[in-house]
Design brief:
mainly alpha; globular; transferase
């Protein structure tokens, strides 16, 4: 049922990673449609989860070294995390993203793009809820 949506999501994630790894920036053409779609979908189905995106982006706005593309990417990822597991999942995703970027920076001995780490963070934060929701019977 969700096969087509899942394919689009995977293609989008791959595009974000490839572009950010290559150019060290995530263009508006990748972030703004995702941001608009996530906000619109959340407002139509579960408005409070928008706060997850606002919270993640807000944390990045007060921090240093985070680019505008990462701030815009934080909104849809925060909404997804909040929808899947509440504010705890958002905070877990932020923490994992920071840790992954820090480890990559140490291993690579220099600056690394943060977008791929954000995607890893949200996957780790959302996966337990997805697995728990999988029905093997009916």
């Amino acid at each position: 049922m969700l096969g087509g949506a899942l394919i689009v999501l995977v293609v989008w994630c791959v595009a974000v990673v490839l572009v950010d790894e290559r150019s060290r920036r995530i263009p508006d053409s990748l972030t703004l449609p995702a941001l608009a779609g996530a906000v619109a979908g959340a407002l139509l189905s579960d408005p409070p989860v928008v706060l997850g995106g606002v919270a993640w982006a807000g944390l990045y706005l007060v921090g240093r070294g985070i680019g505008g593309g990462d701030v815009k990417l934080a909104v849809p990822l925060g909404i997804v995390a909040a929808a899947a597991g509440g504010i705890g999942a958002v905070l877990l995703a932020v923490a994992v993203a920071g840790a992954v970027t820090a480890v990559r920076g140490l291993l690579c001995r220099g600056p690394v793009p943060h977008g791929p780490s954000m995607l890893v963070g949200v996957i780790i934060a959302v996966l337990p809820g997805v697995i728990a929701g999988v029905s093997c019977g009916a």
